[in-house]
Write a structure and sequence with these properties.
about 60% helix; about 260 residues; mainly alpha; two-stranded parallel sheet; 2 strands; about 5% strand
Length: about 260
């Protein structure tokens, strides 16, 4: 919340009241501290927190605090396409999205084309070396990759926009090179992209939902379907099992925990 630049007097009030008023350790799906989301909104009103942005930031902070209190490690890594809402915990960036920005640049002349091609060649070579590093991490190789990454980002070409993109990549070095410290991390978030592909296709065909209730139901069933597919459970059989009350298929949380233990 401090990083989001909330006023210091408000932060001081939260430090003295939020911990005692909001049992974050009791956070469960569908609730936000206290007992219900309505109670949380009421708590915000009672403490004269009316500003919409501040309410959102404090709510997100309470949710994160609840996750930490339930054992989620602060070192949890999240790989994203640089969307701000995913910049939480130990943030890492997708290399495919980083390269896509360079690929989409519009060169104005041959010199620009050569500059873009040269940088893309360097970037893909770094990507291939990172893939090799993930299989057999070595300290010397990690230092070499860091040096070459910095050298690429310090490139000054005649293409001003390309220089700006490289400067931004240099500022994101920590997030782009997280795999050097955590070789188990993926280099891209394509798996997440594929998970929402069905939803995106449906949105393109039929547009958005008509109500908030419709959105929640669409997202819930899309999530259930994907979870079933990931654990080799027929979604149709899962729905029949639950609707008929047979309960022959284990709860999905149990399947997820079992898969995480085996992995």
């Amino acid at each position: 919340m401090e990083q989001q630049k909330l006023p210091r007097p408000l932060l001081a009030r939260l430090e003295t009241k939020a911990v005692t008023c909001v049992p974050l350790a009791h956070f469960e799906a569908g609730t936000i501290g206290i007992e219900t989301a309505h109670d949380w909104e009421k708590w915000l009103d009672q403490h004269a927190i009316k500003n919409k942005r501040r309410r959102r930031i404090i709510t997100e902070g309470a949710l994160m605090g609840g996750l930490l209190a339930r054992g989620i490690p602060v070192s949890l890594s999240i790989v994203s396409d640089d969307a701000g809402q995913f910049n939480v915990f130990d943030h890492a960036l997708c290399w495919i999205h980083a390269e896509r920005i360079i690929k989409c640049l519009l060169p104005l002349n041959d010199e620009h084309v050569q500059a873009v091609d040269a940088v893309r060649d360097q970037l893909w070579q770094l990507y291939r070396d990172l893939k090799a590093y993930k299989l057999e991490p070595r300290v010397s190789q990690a230092e070499d990759i860091r040096c070459r990454f910095q050298l690429m980002c310090n490139t000054q070409s005649a293409h001003a926009t390309l220089n700006q993109v490289l400067k931004r990549m240099a500022n994101n070095q920590h997030e782009l090179l997280r795999v050097l410290d955590k070789p188990y991390l993926p280099l891209h978030n394509n798996l997440s992209e594929r998970d929402i592909r069905d939803y995106v296709k449906k949105r393109k065909i039929s547009g958005s939902t008509r109500s908030e209730a419709g959105r929640k139901r669409r997202d819930t069933f899309a999530s259930l379907k994907k979870t079933c597919l990931k654990h080799k459970v027929s979604f149709w059989h899962y729905l029949k099992d639950r609707l008929l009350g047979a309960n022959n298929i284990p709860p999905l949380p149990d399947l997820i925990r079992a898969a995480a233990t085996c992995g």
